[in-house]
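Review form for a predicted model. The reviewer records the input and the model, then writes brief findings.
Reviewer: anonymous (R2)
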Amino acid sequence: MPQTVKCVLINVDVVLISEIINIDTDVDDMSGASCELVNPFLYTKDKDSDEFNLEPWPEVTYQRKIQMRTENILTIADPIPEIIKKYLELTT
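Model under review:
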């Protein structure tokens, strides 16, 4: 299955670059998670240049699949080709 890489805005200044998988939630599931971020990276950009960085997110775990409630996502968009290229270099 081909990777679908997306920009995930979860806060005004927090943009994640990640694959997203919708998951079925069990009524008894306390987490309420409805999607899974696979290999999420935090997007940061240098204000003085056009350079950007992708840093593993969250940096407090080695876990590469993070469940999240869609209610915590403000919007999802397609990243520009340069971001996709760097993401794929980091994840393949």
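Findings: The chain has one helix and six strands.
Further findings: The chain has a mean pLDDT of 88.
Recommendation: see findings above.
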